[in-house]
Each structure stands twice: as C-alpha cells, then as structure tokens.
Amino acid sequence: MKRIIIFPYKFGSATAKILARALPAVRVRDNGRYRKRNGDFIVNWGSTMLPTWGEVDLNKPQAVANAVNKATALQIMKDAGVRTVEFTSDSDIVRKWIQNADTVYARTLTRASEGRGISLLTANAGRTTLENIVIPHAPLYTKGINSPNEYRIHVFNGQVIDYTKKVPLSDSGANANSLIKSHGNGWTFARNIERRPSIEAEAVKAVQALGLDFGAVDIICNPADKDRPYVLEVNTACGMCEDGRTLSSYSNAIKNFIAEQ
C-alpha cells in the first residue's frame, strides 16, 4: 500500500494536520529530514515551492502558484474561457466603474485570504466627476456583484466532491458583512441547498484551466440569474473542520484516486 504524504504550504497548517489524521498521512517539510521513498504518493496542500526532494503527485507547485496569485489566476481563467468577475489593473477603468455606481474591490495583496488587503471603493455623495474619485494604488481591482448567492464548490480530478453556499452565522444575522463574505465577517457554509449544474460546470472549468488536480472554487451568481455564475478565485488549501463533510470528501477522494492508480 502506498504511503500518503502531505506537503503543506505551512507545516503548522491546521487543515493539513486534520487531513493527515483522516487519511492517515505523514506531513513533510520542503527541506526537512523527509526523503522520498519508492511508492510515496505526495499531495501538495497549497505550497508554491518546488520541494528539494522531488515531484509531487497532486497539485503541482507551479499550478498552485498561478492559483494563489489572484491577478494571474483571473487572467489564466479568462483566457481559458472561464466566466470570471470583471477585473483590471487600470485605475481609469476603475473610475468609470465607480462613476457607474459599481462597487469595486481594490486588492493591494494578490495572495491574501479572509479579506486581507481589500479596500472597498463605492460611489459617494459629491463624487460627481472622474477626477474627484481617489483610487488607491493596487495591482488588482475587481468589480463587485452584489448578490446573496455565493458558493464554494470543491472539485477533485474533474468531479465536484462538495457543494456549499455561504450563509450568515447564526449569531451574526443582519450584522454579517455582505460585501466580504469571510468567516471573520460573520459567514459560514451550508449544504441543504439546490445544486445547479451551471455552477458545478464553471467550477470544474476553473480548476482545469489553472492546471490543478483539486481546488475549492469561490463563485458568485448574478442575483437576477442564478444560472450565470462568475468565478472569484480557486483555493488550494481550503478550510475545513475535523468532523466535517468537506474533510471526508477530500480524504475519500484522495484514497480512491490512489486506489485507481
């Protein structure tokens, strides 16, 4: 039987730990004492580094690097025909978006999570001309879609293995930040929802476009058309709890994939 190895982006990653326990698997560092054995099966959990001891089997570091950089990922996906949110690095385009009353996300950090590095730009009273709009410098700006329909779709080897929707935490209710739907802003995931083939298809396309074997795709839908999804980003080391369904979905998918080799 193959020995399963988890190569995490950070050795102390909580999700890497619980995934290793569930499989079970051994976690290794890039430059530690690990030496690859014949038959080892290596799962890259979010690392962009090419390890010194050899290749990985799932999620090549270069593909992860492309996914982690939001600007790079959006361009790759768009070029491959994936429907993404509108994005730009041109502040003049951003001014026009704001003048048209669109919400814009200025992303000063292209490799951050949980809403870090995001500034919200909106049309305020008195901003009547393009010249009056102050745009902070950022490598990436994305046009917002104000919708309650935001999903996280987990894809493994071309198949959807978990399908969730972002909903407010029970104790946050109306106080949840509707513009940045992160756990820290009062959001969690629900599963008792209608699954839409159009959303699943776009998630699979996004993961494949980035050259990944698996990923958790964040998708938002136009509130007037739930069958018109837009990809926000693809996560390569997604959050999950120790006794949750997402963990079971990943551990089972990995074990079944290895068994079929």
Can you walk me through this structure?
- With 261 residues, this protein is of the alpha+beta class.
- The chain folds into 3 domains: 76 residues, 3-Layer(aba) Sandwich (Rossmann fold); 109 residues, ATP-grasp fold, B domain (D-amino Acid Aminotransferase, Chain A, domain 1, 2-Layer Sandwich), CATH 3.30.470.20; 57 residues.
- Helices cover 25% and strands 26% of the residues.
- It has 6 helices and 12 strands.
- A 5-stranded antiparallel β-sheet has the order 10-9-8-11-12. Strands 4-7-5-6 form a 4-stranded antiparallel β-sheet, sandwiched between helices.
- The longest helix is centred in the C-terminal third of the chain and has 15 residues.
Task: List strands and helices in order, with pairings.
Blueprint: E1 4-8, H1 14-22, E2 26-27, E3 41-45, H2 61-68, H3 70-79, E4 87-88, H4 91-99, E5 104-107, E6 118-121, E7 140-143, E8 150-156, E9 159-168, E10 187-190, H5 197-209, E11 214-222, E12 225-235, H6 245-259
Parallel strand pairs: 1-2, 1-3
Antiparallel strand pairs: 4-7, 5-6, 5-7, 8-9, 8-11, 9-10, 11-12
What is the structure about, briefly put?
The chain has 261 residues and is α+β, with helices and mostly antiparallel strands. It is 25% helix and 26% strand. The strands form three sheets. The chain has a five-stranded antiparallel sheet with strand order 10-9-8-11-12. A four-stranded antiparallel sheet has the order 4-7-5-6, with helices on both faces.
Give the CA-based shape: globular
The biggest sheet, with number of strands, parallel, antiparallel or mixed sense and barrel status, is: 5 strands, antiparallel
Name of the level-1 CATH class of the largest domain: Alpha Beta
Q: CATH H-level name of the largest domain... which superfamily?
A: ATP-grasp fold, B domain
Please indicate the count of domains. 3
